[in-house]
Amino acid sequence: MAEHDPQSIPALLERNARRYGANAAYREKEFGVWQTWTWLATAEEVRSLALGLLALGINRGDYVAIIGRNRPALYWSMVATQKVGAIPVPLYQDAVADEMAYVLDHCGARFVIAGDQEQVDKVLEVGDRAKSVEHILYLDPRGLRKYDHSHLHALADVAAEGRAAHERLEPELKAREAEVTYDSTCVMLYTSGTTGRPKGVVLSNRNIIETSKNSSEFDRLRAGDEVLAYLPMAWVGDFIFSIGQAYWTGFCVNCPESESTVQTCLREIGPTYYFAPPRVFEQLLTDVTIRMEDASRLKRWLFARAMKLARRVGPRLLDGQSVGAWDRFRYWLNGRLIYGPLKDALGLGRIRVGYTAGEAIGPEIFEFYRSLGINLKQLYGQTEASVFITQQPDGQVRSDTVGIASPGVELKVAESGEVFYRSPGVFVEYYKNPESTAGTKDDEGWVATGDAGFIEEDTGHLRIIDRAKDVGKLADGRLFAPKYVENKLKFYPNILEAVVFGADRPDCTAFINIDLQAVGNWAERSNLAYASYQELAGNPRVYAMISEHVAEVNRTLADDPILSGCQVHRFLILHKELDADDGELTRTRKVRRRIIEEKYADLLTALYDGSESIYTETEVTYEDGRKGKISATLKIARAEVAAPTAQKVAAE
Q: What is the pTM of this model?
C-alpha cells in the first residue's frame, strides 16, 4: 500500500467522490424502478447518517448491528458507523430470534439498524437477552407507526437530524474520522457456527483494503464494472465484493428489489463481475435442462449439437488456446443464435469475471458455463482471511483445484494434511475469545484452515479434500472423507443435500435430500402424482432414480485407490429438507454434521442394523416460528457397490 493511499473505507469513499463523483455507485430497484446514487451522492448520504448517529450519542468503539436485505442505505450505515469510530456488525436477516440474541449480547451492540418491521420485531423479542441495545433505527417504516418510538427511530429522520445539526457536529465528525487508522477495526463478522456458537471475527481496515486491492488487481476489476448484491450482508464475501472491492475500484453495486426478483434483476443489470455459490449455478442449469426437456424435438437436437461444439471449443477460446478457423466460425455463429440468447436469459451475458466457492462444483456444471464463454473460476476463502486464500488465474482454470495462492498469500500444508495460510488479510482476533484465536492463528501469523488438502508440485494449485476434522478412518483403517463423497452426490441436480457417515464404522451410509424442483419436474413429466415433499421423497421410483446416482458415484470412487472405501452401502431419503431454522444447516447452508447425527440418531442406527425401514418423528420450525412435528416411515435402500480397481485387475 502506497503512503498516499486511503487508510480506511470512509477515506476510500471520499477519494471516490472526488475521482468518480458522477459515476453510479449504488442502484436499487424499488416499486419496479431502478434508482441510482452517484459516488458524490453516496458520500453525502453517509455523511448525513454519520452526523445523525453522533446526534444520537454514538461513542467510539460502539458496536452497531445491521440487519436486513441488501439495500444501499444499509451499506451506507456500515460506512457511516466506521466514520464515527464505531464498528458495524452485520447479522443474517433470516436468523431466528435466538441466534440474533446471542450475537447482540456477545458484541454488546448499543445500536441496531434494521431493514424493516420483521427485523425490528425480532430485536424487540429478544430485548431481555440483549440488554445493551439502546436505540433501534429502521429503514422501511411500514407497520411501525404505532410502535413505542422512545428508542425507535426512522433512519431517514436520523439522517435529516444529522443534516440539520451539521454545523454543530461537523468538528466532532472530522475528529472521529481522523482517528480511524489502517489498523482500526473495519467490521466484525460472525462465523457460521458449524460446530458450535458463532465467533466474532475482527477484521481491520488493513485486512479489508489490502485484500480488496490485491484481489481486484488479480482480475483487473475496474470502475466500470457492475455487481449484483444479493448474498447475505453478514457474509464476508458480500462485504468484500459490495464494500471492499467496490470502494477500492469504484465499481457499481446493484441491489435487487427482493429475494424473489433476484433472477429478474440479474437479467436487467447484466453484471460484469459475479459471484454465486455452486448451488446457484446448479439451479440455473437445472432450469435450462427443464426448459429444454419441454422443448420440441428439433430444438433439443439443435441445442445438443451446439453444446457438443461448445464443450470442445469454448474453454479453449477462454484459455487463449489455438482453435481452427472453421470451429471458431461455427462457435461464433452458435453464439449469435444460441449461446448469446441463453446467456442473456440467465443474466450472465456480460460477465468478464465470475467466481464460485463454498462447496465443490460439479465438473459438468463448471464445464457447461465455461463452454458458453463465461469466465467462471473457483476461489477458496474464509472469513478469517477476508475471503481470498486462493484464486484461479485466467488460462489456469480447472474444476478439480481451487487455484493458486492469491497475491500476498503464503500457503503450506502440515504433515497432518491440514492447509495453513498467511496473508495481509488475516483477521486480528476472535472477539472475546483469546483461546480460539491462539488455537487458529500462531505467533507468526499462520492460520489453520481446518481443511485437508495438498499443493500440486508442478502447478502450485491447491486441492481441497475435506474438512480436516471430518477426515477419519473406517473400522478397517481405510480413509474416510465424507465431504468429498457428499459433493459428488450433490453434483446430480436431483440431489439437494447429502450427509455421509462412516467414521469408525464398517462402511459408509448416507442421508439424502432430493431437490424438490428438479425431481418434481421429472415427476410431472413422468405422470407421477404427489402432494408433498415427503410423499415424493418416499416414492419407489424416486428411490430407484437416487439409487442409480449413488451407484454411479460408487463406481467413480472405486477407481480412486485412496477413497475407494468411501462407497455408500446403504442410504435413505429424508422426509424433510435439512433447514437452518431447525439447526441442521448454518445460515450459509453448511451441514452441521454433529447436530444431524444426534437429532437423527434413530435413522443412523437403522442404516447400520440391517433394518429395511424405520418410523420416525421429527420436530420442525415453521416460517412463523411455531414448532411442530412430522412423522414418516422411511425406506432404507441398499446401494450397488463397485469392486475397487485393484480387485478388478486382480480378477482379470
A: 0.84
